[in-house]
Amino acid sequence: MQTEVFPIPSIYLHLAAVMDYMSLKQPEKAQTHLMAAWELARPDDLIEGFGEHHGLLGGMLEAVLKKDYPEDFKRIIAITYRFSAGWRRVHNPVTGHDVADNLTTTEFATAMLAARGWTNQEIADHMGISPNTVKQYISTTLQKLNIRQRKDLKKYMLL
Where is the domain boundary, 43, 60, 87? Predict the structure, then answer.
């Protein structure tokens, strides 16, 4: 449909594909799209979309960029915090509950995956951390949200 690649819309389309594949529990395909977006974004430092969509990318930034691009990852997380300062206080349109606004970005990403039905082992494998670390993130998240059961995460996450 187009004769040239326009980086900004292409980046966002790849990021949307990452979100879709993560919802389908297909992290390998999600990673392919994340890296395609990254290769388009990096030359011109067009990283804002990565920060804006951090939570919806299902831990892909932690799993892929954190290790190989640690300085860029830190900048993306700074964008995430600036972008989400007011955003996460919005209500979940499905349940009416406040979206979690007091979680770290890693807690939020882990909780998003857990709310989508991923097991601790699946999350650990995806994010390159131990299942015990995942368990700790989930426990801390449940405490911060003042809920007792993992299934209640859906009320606080944007799925």
Answer: 87
Residue type, 112: M
Rounded to an integer, what distance in angstroms lies between the CA atom of residue 65 and that of residue 82? 19
pLDDT reported for residue 31: 96
DSSP 3-state helix, strand, coil percentages of the chain (rounded to 5)? 70, 0, 30
What is the Rg, in whole angstroms, of the alpha carbon atoms belonging to the chain?
15
Query: 94 — phi, psi (to 5°)?
Result: -80, -45
Count of domains forming the chain: 2
pLDDT of residue 56: 84
Helix H or strand E segment including 59: none
What pLDDT is attached to residue 158?
62
Q: Output the pLDDT for position 156.
A: 73
Q: How many CA atoms lie within 13 A of 6 on its CB side?
A: 7
Calpha distance 114→110 (Å, rounded): 6
Q: What is the residue range of 128's domain?
A: 90-159
Low-confidence ranges of the chain (pLDDT < 70): 1-5, 85-101, 158-159
Contacts with 91 (C-beta within 8 Å, 6 or more apart), sequence order: 97, 98, 99
With contact defined as beta carbons under 8 Å apart, do 30 and 58 qualify?
yes
